[in-house]
Amino acid sequence: MSQHRKKSPVSRRPGSDRGRQVRQAAGPATLLQHVERLIGKVMRFVSPADAVVSHYFRENPKLGHRERGIIAEAVFAVLRRRAEFAQYATGGSGSTEHRLALLGLWVTRGPEGIKAYLAGDEAAWLERIGMIERASLPARVRSNLPDWLFEALIGQYGEAFTEALARASIDSAPLDLRVNTLKSDRDAVMAALAEAGFGAEATPLAPLGIRMQGKPALQALPLFKDGFVEVQDEGSQLLCHLLAPRRGEMVVDFCAGAGGKTLGIGALMRSTGRLYAFDVSEKRLANLKPRLARSGLSNVHPVLIDSEQDAKIKRLAGKIDRVLVDAPCSGLGTLRRNPDLKWRQTPQSITELNAKQAAILASAARLVKPGGRLVYATCSVLARENQQIVQDFLAQHPQFVLKPAGAVLAEQKIALEMGDWLELYPNVHGTDGFFAAVLERVPQTAGEAVGPATEVVEAGAGAVDEAAESR
Fold first, then answer.
1. Which residues contact residue 221 at a Cβ distance below 8 angstroms, ignoring those fewer than 6 apart?
2. Alpha-carbon span 6 to 19, nearest angstrom
3. What confidence tens digit (pLDDT) does each residue in 199-234 have?
4. CA 72 – CA 60 distance, rounded (Å)
5. CA gap 457, 249 in Å, rounded
């Protein structure tokens, strides 16, 4: 699983006609001042933006839910359009943070919503900015990407596709759900959502997905509390179908994180067989527990490991039917959710990730039995983290072959045109940016002995017991 934070704490967009009332509700500091202060903290890029925002709100407990939503949305708008706003902010008055705060509120609240916070000629300044044609800006500024990333993407995709990808990445991501087929089906869940007053539609690609209108709070919804649905991006759901687990198999989610894909895989297995959720983070695995309880799955076994070389992994070598490696990555396919990542990642950090990705993939491959399947995936759009890692792996592991992702999707009756790789983009598919490769180990040959099924189960049980003790 990627090592980036998953979601910006941005609530739905409020109306634009209560600027002055919101300022009064926010207390001694005006809403604008809160945005200024938070921009100053977030743009140090020391920690993930969502963590900084959450910490700031804990420090300011008197801010209401509405005010927090407005402040967070303005701050994330600045992160999304930092290059563009930096050019606009050469004009105006006050500190850089003040000008950026005004721009963030202006694009999220509208001119009427921020009138109460404008002074001097700031209204005229914003009006002049509103008249600027984005097409007149340099391509790099329009892209709102750092120079190194802009050049890397142009080298891969060309300027036209890069600009379209960058533009789509500025938008906020939709809220997608996955239906838990152990408890219901998509039609029934959509009917229940409609009855509860929620707008929703079936996702166009993932057969179990639902896309919500807006971003309603789901935590109190019985469908969510009772495990009928889980929040999961449509692209992430497709990774589970690429793995295509079968009932009764031995399966490993190698970098499980908080377990979104683990739960999807377990449901496809109909809660049969044995599904191990490996991760190096005890906190992430702890976050899986309440989701697992809601799901009704009984075949999932969380396992805390210390690294990709953990002895618990070695015990299962050559005995697993299917392994998913959602590798730690830059997260540059998730910029709609995590816009700070494009400013926090560097070419050097990508190089460090490449070494980790290669090591994790090689370690996970040891688990796969002859004839088994290994899926390598990231939520990155960089070839360095995707095709290059897989091609290097195949060159060093001749016992594995690439199976075209398009063929696997067709077997799953998913109508999505793909070639060798699964490549998803927000500007093309409306999902986060995802990459995946399906690798299969050639069937068993003479001399490749694998232990009996009872040995496999016992080894797995030991791994789970040790993991439980280490927690």
1. 196
2. 30
3. 999 999 999 999 999 888 888 899 999 999 999 999
4. 13
5. 11
Give the integer Cα–Cα distance in Å for 157 and 400: 28
Question: Which residues have a catalytic role annotated?
Answer: 379
- Whether residue 307 contacts residue 364, with contact meaning beta carbons closer than 8 Å, is answered with no
Beta bridge partners of 178: 209, 230
Q: In a 3-state reduction of DSSP, which class is residue 7?
A: coil
Q: How far is CA 205 from CA 87, 176, 225, 246, in A?
A: 38, 12, 25, 21
pLDDT digits (tens, 9 = 90+) for 273-291: 999 999 999 999 999 999 9
Q: What is the DSSP string of 30-76?
A: -HHHHHHHHHHHHTT-SS-HHHHHHHHHHH-TTS-HHHHHHHHHHHH
The pair of three-digit structure tokens given for residue 257, joined into one six-digit string: 């994180």
325, β-bridge pairs = 376
Q: How many helices (H) and strands (E) does the chain have?
A: 22, 12
Strands 434-441 and 274-279: unpaired
pTM value? Answer: 0.86
The continuous run of DSSP H or E covering 287 comes out as helix 282-295
Contacts of 51 (CB under 8 A, 6+ apart): 5
Phi, psi (deg, nearest 5) at residue 400: -115, 145
